[in-house]
Write a structure and sequence with these properties.
Blueprint lengths: L2 H21 L6 H8 L6 H4 L3 H22 L8 H18 L1 H7 L12 H19 L5 H20 L2 H6 L5 H12 L7
Helix pairs in contact: 1-2, 1-4, 4-6, 4-7, 5-6, 5-7, 5-8, 5-10, 7-8, 8-10
Length: about 190
């Protein structure tokens, strides 16, 4: 692939990321991405033979962004693994609420080819971080199952919060108290040193 080919590939992904942020998942068509990139509607097919491959490349950007945010999440070593899970959960929810279109795409494995472009290699380590922290917080539990249940709970909070359903039901404008309730349900009450 030449430098210009690589540049066009990146521009197509950039246009898809911007389109996703502005107009949501339903707007992500090859034709619209090509239009926004200023190329013919057939040009994306040279780099992404299928729509699925282009969506996967766009989702990869989202996983890279989320991974960067996870790495930047402050470690709360003195407070222990539960505090780290809380910080990670807050980072996840903030990402979901700041990037609703990307968040929706990233977890739509019915739309993505998860083995393509290393998506599994980007998403599974993020889940592994959560599993490790849950295992440290609850060594007696099946950490993968508890982490899966916690992730499902966080995903539900993100969706319902974005739709403003939880604010209406709970009367809260900050998801912090609900997040603490979820952590208690999955990890137990916060204790000093934990």
């Amino acid at each position: 692939m030449t430098e210009s080919d690589n540049g066009l590939r990146e521009r197509l992904v950039d246009a898809g990321v911007a389109l996703l942020a502005a107009d949501g998942l339903q707007a992500l068509t090859l034709r619209e991405i090509a239009r926004r990139t200023g190329v013919s509607h057939g040009a994306p097919r040279r780099h992404f033979p299928t729509h699925l491959e282009l969506l996967s490349a766009i989702a990869r950007r989202g996983f890279d962004d989320l991974a960067g945010r996870v790495r930047a999440t402050p470690a709360h070593e003195p407070a222990g693994p539960r505090a780290q899970v809380a910080a990670l959960a807050r980072t996840y929810l903030e990402f979901a609420l700041d990037n609703p279109g990307m968040y929706e795409l990233m977890f739509r494995h019915d739309l993505l080819e998860s083995g393509h472009l290393g998506l599994r290699e980007r998403s599974l380590p993020l889940f592994g971080v959560l599993v490790g922290l849950v295992g440290a917080a609850r060594p007696e539990a099946d950490a993968r199952r508890v982490a899966g249940a916690l992730w499902a709970n966080l995903h539900g909070i993100a969706q319902l919060w974005r739709w403003r359903s939880l604010q209406l039901a709970l009367g809260d404008e900050d998801f912090g108290p609900l997040l603490e309730t979820v952590l208690v349900a999955h990890l137990g009450a916060a204790q000093s040193g934990r």
